[in-house]
Design brief:
This is Rhodanese-like domain-containing protein. It comes from Ureibacillus endophyticus. InterPro entries: GlpE_sulfurtransferase, Rhodanese-like_dom, Rhodanese-like_dom_sf. The chain is α/β, with parallel strands linked by helices. It has a single domain (about 5-120), classed as Oxidized Rhodanese, domain 1 (3-Layer(aba) Sandwich). Helices cover about 30% and strands about 20% of the residues. The chain has a five-stranded parallel sheet with strand order 1-6-5-2-4. The protein has a two-stranded antiparallel sheet with strand order 3-7. The longest helix is centred in the N-terminal third of the chain and has 11 residues, at about 5-15. The radius of gyration is 14 Å and the shape is globular. The N and C termini lie far apart (about 35 Å).
Length: about 130
């Protein structure tokens, strides 16, 4: 793979927090933001505002909650976390349109973009699967 192919593939598979925020302001119904972080509730207490929370270890059982007619944007902790990449691969293999949010929630918070308290979610599980 040459550099051009690499960067084309990277841009096809990822979206920056700035681009996601801008694109959802233009067409908010096009996207389904998915928080796939594993871990106990106290470390997942914040989520990106309006994100849907389905931890990676619950994904297979809750697949019906993810719409096939929207572009799925997955995120996890940070650039060092590959959980979102694993989930993206899983969903792509099942026919979903998927991109990974670059930098995860860490990049989102660094930009001071909107977050909300995820502990208010009814479906939140404290079983981290770790």
């Amino acid at each position: 793979m040459n550099a051009l192919d690499y960067f084309n593939a990277r841009l096809e598979a990822t979206i920056s927090p700035m681009d996601y925020l801008r694109l959802t302001q233009i067409d908010p119904d096009k996207y389904f933001l998915l928080d796939v972080r594993n871990g106990p509730l106290h470390v997942r207490s914040l989520k990106i505002k309006d994100a849907n929370v389905i931890p990676e270890q619950e994904l297979q059982a809750r697949l019906s909650e993810i719409p096939k007619d929207k572009e799925i944007i997955v995120y996890c902790w940070d650039v060092w976390c590959n959980t979102a990449a694993k989930v993206a691969k899983f969903l792509l293999e099942r026919g979903y349109m998927v991109k990974e949010l670059t930098g995860g929630i860490a990049a989102w918070k660094e930009m001071n973009f909107p977050v909300s308290d995820s502990t208010q979610e009814v479906n939140m599980s404290d079983n981290c699967g770790c």
